[in-house]
What we know:
Number of strands: 6
Structural class: mainly alpha
Strand order of the largest sheet: 1-2
Order of helices and strands: HEEHHHEEEEHHHH
Radius of gyration: 16 Å
Number of helices: 8
CATH topology: Aminoglycoside 3'-phosphotransferase, Chain: A, domain 2
Helix content: 40-55%
Number of domains: 1
Largest sheet: 2 strands, antiparallel
Low-confidence stretches: none
Distance between the termini: 42 Å
Amino acid sequence: xxxxxxxxxxxxxxxxxxxxxxxxxxxxxxxxxxxxxxxxxxxxxxxxxxxxxxxxxxxxxxxxxxxxxxxxxxxxxxxxxxxxxxxxxxxxxxxxxxxxxxxxxxxxxxxxxxxxxxxxxxxxxxxxxxxxxxxxxxxxxxxxxxxxxxxxxxxxxxxxxxxxxxxxxxxxxxxxxxxxxxxxxxxxxxxxxxxxxxxx
Length: 200
């Protein structure tokens, strides 16, 4: 593996590759056949037909339970956020979404440029079938991905952009802030609180 990941050309290639991967999914449910891990966090990938239920019960609530008592604002905002999740991720907000095959932990440390082909390659996934936009949460949290990547993704994606994506991606980014807070504690609470205050 070699080569810079910041150039416009490689960023566009990453966006195209992700859109192609997301369209290759063969599942009609959300989840995965085996357990996967995001960092040290074990993911409940039990199959589910309802995306909002999957995200609440199998992603967000386990993390809120894990960090309960560490910060009163995280606890308070988290309870309110979960009670309103249907507004952002329910079937009215996201009608007929198709499960996409996700990397699940796509930050700058988990992709690179192949030395020979000059194509982007991704590795160390926390794989599952989910809403395609959930991929963008970690990409937004740590950066390393430019707008060129997202534009290229949208240009060829088979999934239309639905109103409210900015807020949904904030929810998906919040998951990764919470996960880091659960794993490492400390200053990661501020990222959680900032996102929840903007959403609520």
